[in-house]
Amino acid sequence: MRSAHTVEQVRAAEADLMARLPEGTLMQRAATGLAVAISNFLGSTYGARVVLLIGSGDNGGDALYAGARLARRGAQVTAVLLSDKAHAEGLEALKMCGGRVGSVEDIRGADVVIDGIVGIGGRPGLRPDALAAVQLAEQFDVPIVAVDTPSGVDVDTGETPEPHVNAALTVTFGTHKICHFIDPAATACGPVHLVEIGLDLPPAEVESLQAADIRHLYPVPHGESDKYSRGVLGLMVGSTQYPGAAVIATAGALGGPVGMVRYVGPDPVAEAVRAAHPEIVAGNGRVQAWTIGSGLGDELDIPRIRELLDAEEPVVLDADGLKALDDSGDHVDVLATPHAGELARLLDVDRATVEAERLKHARLAAERYDVTVLLKGATTVIAAPDGQVRVNSNATPWLATAGAGDVLAGLCGSLLAGGLSPLDAASLGAYLHAAAANLASSSGPTTAISVAAALPEATRYLLRS
Ligand SMILES: NC(=O)C1=CN([C@@H]2O[C@H](COP(=O)(O)OP(=O)(O)OC[C@H]3O[C@@H](n4cnc5c(N)ncnc54)[C@H](OP(=O)(O)O)[C@@H]3O)[C@@H](O)[C@H]2O)[C@@H](O)CC1
Ligand SMILES: [K+]
Fold first, then answer.
1. How many domains would you assign to the chain?
2. pTM, to two decimals
3. Which of 68, 109, 234, 323 is the most exposed place for a label (fewest CB within 10 A)?
């Protein structure tokens, strides 16, 4: 599990630890890890030209001490001071090791620029000098390594309302921050490298499941299992208008842990589903969970869906089915899987607002509708009505293909029927869907059906590893 904490949580943990350690210990731990990460990024430190952009706080201090270490190992290090309050001891250390103070002109011809403008103490946006320096690095194609956070992003929300650094690598300390997990800021971080500094932290604000968590949570059958005890999923998806949605969602469901799938829908669609997947059963019967919504089109039956939402069995509600959601009643066992446009309609805001403030709107919808929300996108945000948030970031952009959402809805339903909570079903579903897409795509085009077909292999790999 990866964890992201708020600035307030990090500050409190830092204060606790600093009270027990000699002054400056944490900054030295951070700077050591930062210098190693920059060395690895550069490949060779000796003779490398490194420019440090230094703001007024400890973020600049980290960059200066790391610069001193790199200078000691033969790098040509130049600090560009963007404030007259640069960290004095850090600057002294840099000069002692052969580093010097220069100007933005040094960015031309540099091998790397280190963003020590602001970290967790920063407000969104860049001041004019910093913005000019960052634009120069972009103009000359010099990669930027961000210290702790890319300067200019909103650290606690992942929003980017103002200009900010786009990093090739972010090196962070103690724990991840929310901007490392939530888009659009997450994209601005590039890969994120975490340096341990020994903070003792409370439960995280946002979590991201890793392979070991998937292995631990997956409902693996045992010796006594039969097809019913593994879970039966009811699928109310597809229509005579969109029969493909039913075929694709069924493929997604069968790629999950469920023991049996029942298809409930018009006869010609049931025939198409049966032709593609002879293992399904058509018609009503007892189920442990439902997936409702993909491709219902004009055949959407809102009163029937509301009956199922009010019934005992948990429900994945997707696409057209989301129109049946209302904000009265208890829906804690409902998992809604909107994309940004559908979430915007549920909250009566425009799509761009949801895209810009993904965490906030996923949380808002979870609270207003009392459901778990899985907001689809390059990084998936999952918000539960009790305030828990998880993200998934392992998706390939090739997954943006027609029908991929239907596979996800079927798979999440399968995981719900297998006995997982909506939060776990959503987290595992997003992870496995992305893992299968990586396998099916292998860095090239893929289709929804190929993603569904890759689910068993992706799952097998994760369960074995
Ligand atoms: N916590 C930990 O565990 C550890 C923390 N460590 C490190 O400390 C960092 C936090 O340091 P910090 O608290 O000094 O804040 P930081 O982000 O450097 O600067 C804040 C100052 O910048 C200014 N400013 C604000 N917005 C701005 C903007 N948009 N553009 C430009 N300037 C802006 C504003 O000052 P002003 O100029 O307004 O007077 C504000 O006071 C943290 O990210 C990590 O790197 C590690 O060393 C070890 C462990
Ligand atoms: K920074």
1. 2
2. 0.95
3. 109
